Input
Amino acid sequence: MNGYYKRTSPETAGEPVLVASGLRKTYRMGRVPVQVLKDASIEVRSGEWVAILGASGSGKSTLLHLLGGLDRPDPDGGMIRFEGRRVSDFGGAELNGYRNRSVGFVFQFYHLLPELSVLENAMLPCLVPNRWVSATLPLLAALIGGGVGAAIGSTFGVEILPTADAPTPSKIALLAVTCGVLGAAVGVVLFQIGQVLAERTRLRHGPQAATSRHTLEEFGLGHRLRHRPSQLSGGERQRTAIARALASEPGILMADEPTGNLDATTGREILDLLKKRHDAGLTIVMVTHDATVAEYADRVVRLEDGRVVETTA
Ligand SMILES: Nc1ncnc2c1ncn2[C@@H]1O[C@H](COP(=O)(O)OP(=O)(O)OP(=O)(O)O)[C@@H](O)[C@H]1O
Ligand SMILES: [Mg+2]
Output
């Protein structure tokens, strides 16, 4: 069962999941501070689709990036709570989890990785490397490799020493250390090769691949799985970006101008696709400058002069 289906069960539907209050964000243009968000507050309830409407340059992307944990407000510049917890209190791993699993983000300009295929791009949020695995296991491989190398060096080294060299304890020790270092290097190399092979297998055959493949097929991209983003149309790229945002089955989808770079027909297709997911319970926060696009949402707010102004749906 998808995460967002769970979160929007009848018991939890309508609860505020994301609450931002008094957000301030200032950029510096050289020495000149530019305050983009002045006192922006917004509440998003589970299961609703909120559109943030605003003119170009009004700070829509800035606000969405703050909500998605991709950027931080000014010091003392308001707070964001997700399911009651302050996002600013999240530690590194928790913040990564928030960005990758709690929230799915569709960027204004796709941000697909050109060297990866459509399927690999779509799976990206689920490929966050496990720090324990990438930091600890190579060390373990080196220790085991080193130990085995040293043992081999000290046990069999005597036999391969040139006959002129008497096998003194210090020579045997030197041999053991040399074999140990070589063994450690071999251990790390073997570990890295194993990790790449395991990652490839996970990419192609793991449950995540099946989920992403299924989403891409649902989005009409089943015949494009192995293509690179440069071989796709704008609409296909956006559908890949949405599939990526949904890969970890997030509670909230944040979409920054999801139709901004598309023609009207393709834009409608994308919105229909979002609507289908929303009807199934997905919470959506969408940024747009286009009032007709905003009409898809349950509720429309405006971003004006760095503040969020409530309007009617
Ligand atoms: N990293 C940055 N450094 C300096 N200024 C920035 C930065 N990012 C955004 N800005 C400025 O902040 C303002 C708001 O930018 P933002 O991208 O949030 O607007 P927007 O409403 O998303 O616009 P658009 O509809 O064109 O995408 C703009 O004036 C922009 O130039
Ligand atoms: Mg923008």
